[in-house]
Every structure is written in structure tokens, then in C-alpha cells.
Amino acid sequence: MTDQSNHHLHGAATSAAARTQFVESNGRRLAYRVVGTGKPLVLCNRFRGVLDLWDPAFIDALASQGLQVITFDYSGLGQSTGEATYNPLSLAKDGLDLITALGIKAPAIGGWSIGGIAAQILLAMTGDIASHVVLLGTTPPGTLAKSGEQLFYDTAAAPGISLDQFTTVFFEPADAASREASRRSFERITARTEDRSPDVPAEWAIAQIGQEPRNPLFPSEEILQLLKSTNVPILHVGGDHDIVMPVENWYALNGHLPTLQLTTYPRAGHGPHHQHPEMAAVQIAAFIRNTRRS
Questions:
Q1: How would you write the pLDDT of the chain (294 residues) with one tens digit per residue?
Q2: Could you list the residue range(s) of the whole structural domain that residue 87 is in?
Q3: Residue 287: how many CA atoms within 13 Å on its side-chain side?
Q4: Could you tell me which of 200, 166, 163 has the C-alpha nearest to residue 76?
Q5: What's the CATH number where 250 sits?
Q6: Count of structural domains within the chain
Q7: How would you write the chain as a 3-class SS string?
């Protein structure tokens, strides 16, 4: 599955060994990392996410499945320069500029949370470039059947990053196995001590998205129509109790999105791929390997 044109992207064998690299594009410097070799998968990050807040177990499991995983810091956040914003159009533009600057051919594109919104916009921007779309704990465009919970906005506004906050936002605190998975994921994420991207300030971040749930979160009729007509395969991996972007909103579109596949983990939250990193990676890789444009 290796595309010859992507060979100059040197992927580290593991997340721990991956060094931050930089590329100049449109007047700013984008920080990125590459893990693995093979079919490129470009991942857009979550709200308050930077390079180091992907679970290394998930990234490494994707790489072990023959994917070359490219992660990056959005403009003005982490180690990237430029103007910081959570406008999804700008986040998608970061992804497009990275793909263009690195000369990545026929990538799969993906995104988690607000990065999943960016990935949907990126699909519109890239047209025929993207081979697949992988969405993680995100929302579809348009009016929602179920809004998010106030608990997310109250928890996400707290400064710093604690295990309790991490568990509440990304896992299912009511379930002992989910709490334990959260602890393990948190330990993996915080294990790296060198070459870390600085955290996104909570106060700035929450001011960008507001302090209470909105409906719709992503008011784009244009993107909704694209999802209804695209022939690009789309996979959404979700948890059955996502307090930010409820998975029920994807099921509400049953019969309308011709290429959408849904995988939903029980007793899981907004970070299903951190609760089940190996299983999520295997399913994502199988989806990319075995589905083609219709």
C-alpha cells in the first residue's frame, strides 16, 4: 500500500522515537510528526489537543497495521506558529497546507472531536485527494438529534490536565473498566518528557467555543450535502456515552450517508480510540485496506 511519492516522509518506528519536524507554509511554520511507513493517514486533533495528547498506543498500533501516521499542531498552538483559532475552516486549512507542503499523495484523512469537523471540511477542500475519512468521537453537520452535556463545558474549562478531568471528558466514569483504561492512557500520554508541545491554555480555548452546548455544533448545510453525495468511504468510531458530541447524531442520519460505517464501543466516551487503542487501530486499518470508493 506504500505510495512511492511519500517516501521522503521518514516515519519513526514508534511515537516515543518520533521527533517533531517543521514545514513552512503560507507564512507560518507547522509542527508535525510521522510514525510508521505505508499508506498515509493525516490526523486532525481535538479541542485543546497538541502532538503529545494523542495516545502513543493508538498511534503505534496504527503504524503496526501498515499506516504512516502524520499528526500536527494547528497554527498558533503547540509548536506551530501563526494565528491561533478554533474556526474549523482554519483547522482544515492547516491540514490541507500540511498535505500540500509535504507532497502527500492520496492520504486517508481523519480527525477527533473538533478535528473531525475539520476532517469533514478537508474532504470538501481536497475533493479527489483523500481516499478515506476516519472520524473519531465527532459530530455530523446540521441540526442535532441530541445535544452535548453541560458537564463537558464545565470540565473542559478547568486549567491544566488532570486524570479526573481526562476521565470525565474522554471516558465513562461510571464504568470501572473505562476508568482503568483512562488511567493507563493518561500514563502513556504523560510519559514523554522531551520535545513536548506546550499545552493549549484552557481559558483561551473555552472562550473560542463558548461555555454551553450548541445545536448545531457545525452548521454547514454544504458539508451535510457533501456527506450525502460523496463516494469516499467514511468511518466513525464513537463511544456510547459521548458527553460532547453524542454518537446518536450519526445514527439519526441512517439511510442518508451512503458511505458511512459506524463503530460504537459500549461504556465509552469521547475518546473511544484511547480506551481501545489496539482494537480501534485494527478496525481503522481494516476499513482503509478493504473499502474503496463506490
A1: 334 345 468 899 999 999 999 999 999 999 999 999 999 999 999 999 999 999 999 999 999 999 999 999 999 999 999 999 999 999 999 999 999 999 999 999 999 999 999 999 999 998 878 999 999 999 999 999 999 999 999 998 888 889 999 999 999 999 999 999 999 999 999 999 999 999 999 999 999 999 999 999 999 999 999 999 999 999 999 999 999 999 999 999 999 999 999 999 999 999 999 999 999 999 999 999 999 987
A2: 4-290
A3: 27
A4: 200
A5: 3.40.50.1820
A6: 1
A7: CCCHHHCCCCCECCCCCCCCEEEEECCEEEEEEEECCCEEEEEECCCCCCHHHCCHHHHHHHHHCCEEEEEECCCCCCCCCCCCCCCHHHHHHHHHHHHHHHCCCCCEEEEECHHHHHHHHHHHHHCCCCCEEEEECCCCCCCCCCCCCHHHHHHHCCCCCCHHHHHHHHCCCCCHHHHHHHHHHHHHHHCCCCCCCCCCCHHHHHHHHCCCCCCCCCCCHHHHHHHHHCCCCEEEEEECCCCCCCCHHHHCCCCCCCCEEEEEECCCCCCHHHHCHHHHHHHHHHHHHHCCCC
